[in-house]
Design brief:
By secondary structure, the protein is mainly α. It has helices at residues 19-32, 43-52, 58-65.
Length: 76
Amino acid sequence: MREEACGRLAFKEYNGYCTLHYKECLVELINQNGLDPVVLFEESELRAELDRWKVPTRTNILTNQKGSTMSAYGRS
């Protein structure tokens, strides 16, 4: 595979890739090697990420059953 210049600003510390293609390359490496970066998260970071993507968890389901608003989870 040959890399072509995309026309975006490429940084030396990104091995000549632009930011977008550098991140794409990192994701490819992560996937090819079966790495799971979630193990690096603290519990609070993991909860924030799950909330961000509106992934139901036992905690937010129980909280919502106690009468809090569901709007934070995309429901009204």
